[in-house]
Amino acid sequence: MQSLDEIRLKHILQVLEKTGWDMKKASEILKVPERVIKKQIRILKPITIKKP
Questions:
Q1: What is the DSSP letter of 47?
Q2: Strand, coil or helix: what is 33?
Q3: Is 32 helix (H, G, I), strand (E, B) or coil?
Q4: Whole-prediction pTM value?
Q5: Are 21 and 12 within 8 A, CB to CB?
Q6: pLDDT, tens digit, for every residue of 24-51?
């Protein structure tokens, strides 16, 4: 079973991948400020992130 943090990070990463890692577009889709996305990635990043 996945934790809420794992699910949250997975969702953020999926949106980032679909937007080509465009933080502005991702923040609009997720309806959160860009800084929230950056903070979530920094806090929840024990999982390896494959950035193009």
A1: S
A2: coil
A3: coil
A4: 0.76
A5: no
A6: 999 999 999 999 999 988 887 765 555 5
